[in-house]
Design brief:
Strand content: 15-25%
Radius of gyration: 21 Å
Helix content: 25-40%
Shape: elongated
Oligomer: single chain
Bound molecules: zinc ion
Structural class: alpha+beta
Number of domains: 2
Strand order of the largest sheet: 3-1-2-4
Length: 93
């Protein structure tokens, strides 16, 4: 394959991935991984996403985290009802 063919192949690949990234039905799966932990931006507590308190948080006030460390880094403390972990490392008990 000569240089010109390689460049053409690259251009086709870039174009194909550009199109794929913009197919609307693929976007939700990419853009919105399910949050494991949530908090309200008006509260200093964070919750498991299954917590009843968490489910009452207004969607516009909901902060989402994949790890407890992210919530702790924002200065949040664990909810006393659902008792979310403070670390994503496995407990050593
Ligand atoms: Zn909770």
């Amino acid at each position: 394959m000569n240089v010109r063919m390689t460049r053409l192949a690259c251009a086709v690949l870039v174009a194909a991935s550009w199109v794929l990234c913009r197919v609307p039905f693929l976007e939700p799966a990419i853009a919105a991984p399910k949050a494991r932990f949530v908090a309200s931006d008006t509260s200093d507590r964070y919750h498991l996403s299954t917590c009843k308190v968490a489910q009452k948080i207004h969607p516009e006030e909901t902060l989402r985290f994949q790890t407890p460390e992210e919530a702790v880094a924002k200065g949040l403390v664990p909810c006393k009802k659902c008792d979310p972990p403070v670390s994503s490392a496995p407990a050593r008990d």
